[in-house]
């Protein structure tokens, strides 16, 4: 039990705790936006257009009089949910492909890897633009396009983890007992790959937020009047001199959210990889060594 507590304490470092708190706050604000926000995010009020920050409007109003703070909270719903769906699509397609490719190898591996090489030959965001241009504008098509683009990255990570796991003793023991390949893959190999995959998925959520914002900024993602951080950037860029809050507020929201997910992913990877963990100070090591000697 003592060891388990120490492991939990090692995991919940300051960066991880702060990242989780910030993510929780953003999620809660998006969920309770109708209660926290006193305004309708889509209701126009031309008499109060382009107002500066005030007690009535925390970040001011946009070019048609909509409250920026309220639209930020509703935009968090669209942004976070869309990013999560992108990652879910990459999980559904990428993880099975990676496991099958790594476990069986041979022609199956070659076909899957060559198909993914074609996708990786193009810049990810450019390929997503091509897909959306083919499917049509809209957040649903943007999510599907980015989900497909993210598949090769997750698939190759899963494949490399599977290649390391399939040659270990416990897999050979499972085969000798007579377990089927399906059971070995999904009951034994995949669970050992999940921690590293989780760290990658956390990073992918941050990338998805950034890519979705870029697509909405270019008019390929969320369409007006739906609240979205990328769309808010595009709507406010022409008023950046007269009312900087129109661009500053959604831009800051994107930066904080993406950096938070990146910090969380980096610290999860550091926890999973003992070689990246920081050693405690020398005095603490000396005390620990003294305690071991006394025991």
User: In angstroms, what separates the terminal alpha carbons?
Assistant: 18 Å
Mean pLDDT level: 83
Tell me what portion of residues adopts beta-strand conformation. under 5%
Measured on Cα atoms, how large is the radius of gyration?
24 Å
Per the principal axes of the C-alpha atoms, what is the gross shape? elongated
CATH homologous superfamily grouping:
MetI-like
Membrane topology: Multi-pass membrane protein
GO molecular function: dipeptide transmembrane transporter activity
Protein name: Glutathione transport system permease protein GsiD
Function: Part of the ABC transporter complex GsiABCD involved in glutathione import. Probably responsible for the translocation of the substrate across the membrane.
Description of the molecule:
This protein is an all-alpha fold. The protein has one domain: MetI-like (MetI-like fold, Orthogonal Bundle). It has helices at 2-11, 14-31, 33-36, 68-104, 106-120, 124-135, 139-165, 169-177, 181-217, 229-236, 245-272, 282-294. Helix 4 runs antiparallel to helix 9. The radius of gyration is 24 Å and the shape is elongated.
List keywords for this structure.
295 residues, mainly alpha, MetI-like fold, disordered N terminus, dipeptide transmembrane transporter activity, membrane, BP-dependent_transpt_permease
């Amino acid at each position: 039990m003592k060891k388990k507590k120490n492991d939990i304490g090692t995991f919940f470092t300051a960066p991880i705790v702060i990242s989780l708190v910030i993510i929780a706050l953003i999620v809660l604000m998006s969920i309770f936006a109708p209660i926290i926000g006193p305004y309708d995010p889509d209701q126009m009020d031309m008499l109060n257009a382009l107002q500066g920050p005030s007690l009535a409007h925390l970040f001011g109003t946009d070019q048609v009089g909509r409250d920026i703070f309220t639209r930020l909270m509703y935009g968090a719903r669209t942004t976070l949910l869309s990013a999560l769906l992108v990652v879910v699509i990459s999980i559904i397609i990428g993880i099975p492909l990676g496991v099958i490719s790594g476990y069986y190898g041979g022609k199956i591996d070659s076909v899957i890897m060559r198909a993914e090489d074609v996708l990786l030959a193009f810049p990810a965001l450019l390929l997503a633009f091509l897909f959306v241009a083919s499917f049509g504008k809209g957040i649903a098509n943007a999510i599907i396009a980015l989900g497909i683009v993210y598949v090769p990255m997750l698939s190759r990570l899963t494949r490399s983890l599977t290649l390391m796991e399939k040659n270990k003793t416990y897999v050979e023991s499972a085969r000798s007992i007579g377990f089927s390949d399906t059971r070995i893959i999904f009951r034994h190999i995949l669970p050992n790959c999940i921690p590293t995959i989780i760290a990658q998925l956390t990073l992918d959520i941050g990338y998805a937020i950034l890519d979705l914002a870029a697509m909405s900024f270019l008019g390929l993602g969320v369409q007006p009047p739906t609240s979205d951080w990328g769309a808010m950037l595009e709507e406010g860029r022409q008023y950046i001199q007269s009312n900087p809050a129109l661009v500053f507020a959604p831009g800051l929201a994107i930066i904080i959210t993406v950096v938070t997910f990146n910090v969380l992913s980096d610290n999860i990877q550091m926890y999973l990889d003992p070689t990246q963990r920081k050693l405690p100070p020398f005095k603490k090591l000396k005390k620990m060594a003294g305690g071991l000697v006394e025991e």
